[in-house]
Structures are given as C-alpha cells and as structure tokens.
Amino acid sequence: MRKLAATLLLITLCLTAAAQQKKIDSLKNAIATPKDDTSRVSAMQLLALTYVQSKPDSALALANDMLRISKTAQYRKGEAGGLNALGVVYSVTGNYPKALTYFLSA
Asked: Per the structure, how many domains does the chain have?
C-alpha cells in the first residue's frame, strides 16, 4: 500500500512539473513574439509571478522590464502591475520596506 501511494505521489509530482514547464514556455513565447506592448506586459507579469518563489532574480528583472515598457507605452495598468510585481519580489526576498514602497506606488 505504501509503495502504491509513493508511486502515485511521484507520478502526480512529475505531471505537475511538466504542466508548470509548459506554462512557463508558453509565457516565454508570448514575451518573445513581437505583439502589442499590453499583451507582452501581461505575459511578463504572469511569468514574473510564476518565478517569484523559485527564481526571484529573474522575477525582479522581468518586473523592471515590465515597468520600463509600460512607462514607454504609457500603459498605466502595466505600470501598476510592474510596481506590484516588484513589491511581491521584494516581499518574498525579505526587503519589506522596499516592498511596501512599491505596493503603495502601485
């Protein structure tokens, strides 16, 4: 019975990891494909929030890029999303004063 439970758990973990990787790959493709800035910023926000726990440095870079692109395109919703993503990254990494600053700016 324990072997069966362990096997089912292992299979579930593998399937979850594969699904997560497909999501990451599709978001990377959406960012790389030259579309309008709003859809690109939205994909960047989803990818940044996906990376926030496992790759905070990548999430920070994506959030900064989001903010830069949104300001250039004068996309206010994207700016707020970028500021929010920066707040989440700094919150997860333990820099609470900086996180609060970004959350309030968002």
From this structure: 1
